[in-house]
Write a structure and sequence with these properties.
104 residues, mainly beta, 4-stranded mixed β-sheet, 14% strand, globular
C-alpha cells in the first residue's frame, strides 16, 4: 500500500507494528492469515523449514512442519504464530527496500 512498515526486520519481533503486514504484491488485502517464516518469537531461525521435509524435498508430506506467522497480527506473532504442516499452501513475506520513508 506504499506505507512504511518497519525500519529493520527486528521490529517484527520487538515492537508493535503500525499496521498488520496483510497487503499482497498487488495492493489487495489478504484474508488468509498464515505466512511461512521459519522464525521464532525472538526473531531467530526456528530450526525447521519445509525444504528439510525430505531429500529431495517433498512438499506434500504431512510429517514435516515449519513455523508460520499471522499476517493479521501487529505483534511478534506476525512472524511466529504456530507450526504447521508443509503440505499447506501459505504466502511468504516480501518487503520492498527500494525507497526510504519516515515513520510517523
Amino acid at each position: 500500500d506504499g506505507q512504511p512498515m518497519i525500519y529493520s526486520i527486528g521490529e517484527f519481533v520487538f515492537s508493535t507494528l503500525p499496521r498488520p503486514p496483510n497487503i499482497d504484491e498487488k495492493g489487495n488485502a489478504i484474508t488468509q492469515t498464515g505466512v511461512w517464516t521459519a522464525t521464532s518469537a525472538i526473531g531467530l531461525y526456528a530450526g525447521s523449514n519445509c525444504s528439510d521435509a525430505a531429500s529431495p524435498a517433498d512438499w506434500s508430506t504431512i510429517t514435516a512442519i515449519a513455523i508460520t506467522g499471522d499476517c493479521q497480527a501487529t505483534d511478534s506473532t506476525a512472524v511466529s504464530a504456530i507450526a504447521r504442516s508443509c503440505r499447506l499452501g501459505f504466502r511468504l513475506y516480501c518487503f520492498g527496500i527500494d525507497r526510504a520513508a519516515t515513520l510517523p
